[in-house]
Amino acid sequence: MTMTIPSLDPQSLIVILTGAGISKESGLDTFRCAGGIWAQYDLEDVATPQGFLRNPQLVHGFYNGRRAGLLDKEIQPNAAHKALAHLEQAWPGGVLLVTQNIDDLHERGGSQNIIHMHGELLKIRCEHCHTITEWREDLGLETVCGACQRKGGMRPHVVWFGEMPLQMAEIGEALQKCGLFLSIGTSGHVYPAAGFVSDVQQRGHGHCIEMNLEPTAGQSLFDDHIYGLASEVVPDFVQKLLATLPQACA
Ligand code: BJW
Q1: Ligand 1 pocket test: which of 70, 78, 161, 168 has the largest number of ligand atoms within 8 Å of its C-beta?
Q2: Atom 54 of ligand 1 has which residue's CA nearest to it?
Q3: Distance 190 CA to ligand 1 centre (A)
Q4: pLDDT by residue (tens digit) across 11-54?
């Protein structure tokens, strides 16, 4: 496969948006692919505040299952997660990784500068006192908040439809100044993440590349496209991008 490598000032910031596709080869389901999560569950039931009010047990069961799945020993970061961590260590201008994923595979792959804009599966939040707690067990209506000692108010620390994604100001600032925007393994159906490419393009500079198994709905907004498995195209791209650095940086 031929791959266009942009000529990029080594001091420019790289912003990377990732979605469920990057974790697919680690064994986690995507949402909208055939047989994916939304083929098994109605998103209105499990990924909206209204669904949680209607049937909290169903929502807790949904996230308890996914949390247990994530903690399975078989689920490990793949070559794409690791390559992005390597890029973060080696790129002089800095890398901000914005993930829509609630798994912790980027952290386990070695990335440090991460924003989980849709929250984290291994954290829970108290709706009474808003304390966020790391959590690796099942969660339920009986779970007591370790901070305020009340029960019945604990929920997964995730962002459902209709809720505001996290750290939007920081993301917006980075999108305003990045030299390269990479979108990896996301279908581009969910906003505001799907609009990040337009935010970069509206500035009139900043190169945008889509990496996915196949063209997405927003493909025409990107300057370049790299199609293939994330575990193959991402390490290849990172290696080639780092090879453009002057010797003193590399
Ligand atoms: C591979 C691969 C491999 C596979 N290698 N690739 C009408 C118009 C516009 C917007 C709206 C509207 N009505 C409502 C809205 C807003 C709404 C929205 O976008 N709805 C759309 C459905 C229309 N958005 C919201 O409500 C958000 N909040 C919000 O907008 O607040 C107001 C606001 C205003 C202004 C500024 C800022 C905010 C909140 C969205 C919350 C989304 N939550 C979820 C659940 C989180 C917790 C959980 O995980 O359970 O987030 S939904 C789900 O979708 C999850 C994901 O993060 C998100 C994105 O999915 P993703 O990652 O793209 O996965 P897939 O499955 O769709 O795609 C996978 C891709 O990988 C595919 O393309 C494959 O080809 C590819 N792939 N294998 C490479 N091996």
Answers
A1: 161
A2: 190
A3: 3
A4: 999 999 999 999 999 999 999 999 999 999 999 999 999 999 99
| Spatial distance between the Cα atoms of 250 and 247, rounded to a whole number of angstroms | 5
Q: Model's pTM, two decimal places?
A: 0.97
Give distance in angstroms: CA of 148 to centre of ligand 1: 33
Residues 212-249: b if buried by 16+ CB within 10 A, e if exposed: bbeebebeebbbebbebbbbebbbbbbeebbeeeeeee
Three-state secondary structure along the chain? CCCCCCCCCCCCCEEEEECCHHHHCCCCCCCCCCCCHHHHCCHHHHCCHHHHHHCHHHHHHHHHHHHHHHCCCCCCCCHHHHHHHHHHHHCCCCEEEEECCCCCHHHHHCCCCEEECCEEEEEEEECCCCCEEECCCCCCCCCECCCCCCECCEEEEECCCCCCCCCHHHHHHHHHHCCEEEEECCCCCCCCHHHHHHHHHHCCCCEEEEEECCCCCCHHHCCEEEECCHHHHHHHHHHHHHCCCCCCCC
230 φ, ψ to 5°?
A: -55, -40
Atom of ligand 1 at shortest distance to CA of 161? 26
